[in-house]
Amino acid sequence: MPVIVLVGAQWGDEGKGKATDLLGDRLDYVVKFNGGNNAGHTVVIEGEKYALHLLPSGILSPGVVPVIGNGVVIDLNVLFQEIDGLESRGIDTSRLRISANAHVIPSYNRSLDKVSERYLGARRIGTTGRGIGPTYADKMNRVGVRIQDLFDESILRQKVEAALSFKNQILAKIYNRQAVKPDDVVNELLSYVERLRPYVGDTALELSEALDAGKVVLCEAGQATLLDVDHGTYPFVTSSNATAGGACTGSGIPPTRIDRVVAVLKAFTSRVGEGPFPTELHDKFGDHLREVGQEYGTTTGRPRRIGWLDLVMARYAQRINGVTDFVLTKLDNYDDLDEIPVCVAYEVNGVRHDEMPISQSDFHHAVPIYETMPGWKQSIMGARSFDDLPKEAQDFVVFVEERIRARISVVGVGPARDQVIERHSVLSGA
Ligand code: GDP
Ligand code: IMO
Ligand code: MG
């Protein structure tokens, strides 16, 4: 039965949480396969706002089993804070499953993330400071701590000591910080063990059995295509694979079982942190979209950088992820505009680029080529079918769809769960 992968098409915050929530009652499992609490997904249900970081957005749907896959990095303090926060609001979190192979973010990696950013100064990445980069680096360097290690105290101690034997040198000699005591780290991690135990299992096996039994599984990406460590705007990226391929490695679901790939595309572009951004706006239009769209980070509260929609990037996202369906979000944020420029190509040193330039230096110098669409100057937040949209808004959707190599199956017209127009089923391809 179907596996659907849901990814972000831009630099994050496209509305992935809302898209997952929209599909919630049609899904049996929602798997988070990459990232950690650098993510921030806002979901609005019956006027109630939920901000999720580590838990998959599917946790808000009563019929869904939420899964934290092996590709995720887990800050255990944040995990239990988030579980407690949801429980206190009446959300049942007891179905949660956590992969024994997921990595833990130890406190020293949060410190290293913050001090290394400070050390980089003008060359900083603008990370969320949650210890994501150092923890994935440890994983690749084979000195990471996994969830399963917490259940064997002597193994846990060995691993923490091994990691700290060189990390303490870095903390003390490069960054002038105090060395961390292995005992303190071990004791903190052990304090979570009993609460953690019931959630932990072989999630790859559980998902395989669920698929054999005909269940519907959605793999939900954190971050997005241009933040992917391989396919994004490196080095201004996160440290995991946020593209569709990451769904396989980060969950243990094989590629042959994936049926559909849904990309969430915001009707304009935003970015948090440093790095190139060809369509970025530094004018009243950027300020207007930031305010009507409430574009402030769900995780760090930072104002998001804002730019016009970039179709070169959307086409790239379609190609890298093999997108079958797009969810176009926040179309309503254009309600007040007279006209809407859309980037259709770039010019770099006098040469037109219809695809992403191969070199990052060229991307830094890319000048957008715009086509301008007329605005509709009325609220579309009440529209529930494509025919309810004013002609100009319909034309905008069709204009975008014709240039991104996949159909736009869902259009978002507001933050609430029901503020959507479903044109096609993203689950069946019908
Ligand atoms: P994510 O990280 O991709 O899940 O996205 P975020 O939750 O960080 O940011 C998206 C924001 O847009 C959230 O505040 C959503 O409630 C909101 N949102 C999602 N879809 C729509 C839409 O179609 N219209 C409007 N106005 N807001 C939306
Ligand atoms: P969601 O899932 C937007 C950005 C950070 C920084 C870079 C690296 O809500 O779309 P990291 O802490 O991951 O090492 O930071 O990636 N970033 C995000 N930007 N949305 C996110 O998640 C992000 N997660 C990380 O701002 O530029
Ligand atoms: Mg977000």
List keywords for this structure.
430 residues, alpha/beta, ten-stranded mixed sheet, four-stranded mixed sheet, globular, binds guanosine-5'-diphosphate, binds 6-O-phosphoryl inosine monophosphate, binds magnesium ion
Can you offer a commentary on this structure?
The chain is α/β, with parallel strands linked by helices. The chain contains 13 helices and 20 strands. The chain has helices at 16-23, 76-88, 107-120, 132-140, 153-174, 182-190, 193-196, 203-212, 244-249, 284-292, 311-321, 360-364, 391-401, and strands at 3-8, 29-32, 41-45, 48-52, 65-68, 73-74, 97-99, 103-104, 200-201, 217-220, 260-266, 269-271, 305-307, 309-310, 325-329, 339-348, 351-353, 367-374, 407-412, 420-422. The strands form five sheets. The chain has a ten-stranded mixed sheet, with helices on both faces. Helix 5 packs across helix 6 (182-190). The longest helix has 22 residues, at 153-174. It is globular and about 65 Å long. The two termini are 15 Å apart. The mean pLDDT is 96.
Give a short overview.
With 430 residues, this protein is of the alpha/beta class. 30% of the residues lie in helices and 20% in strands. The active site is at residues 13, 41, 139.
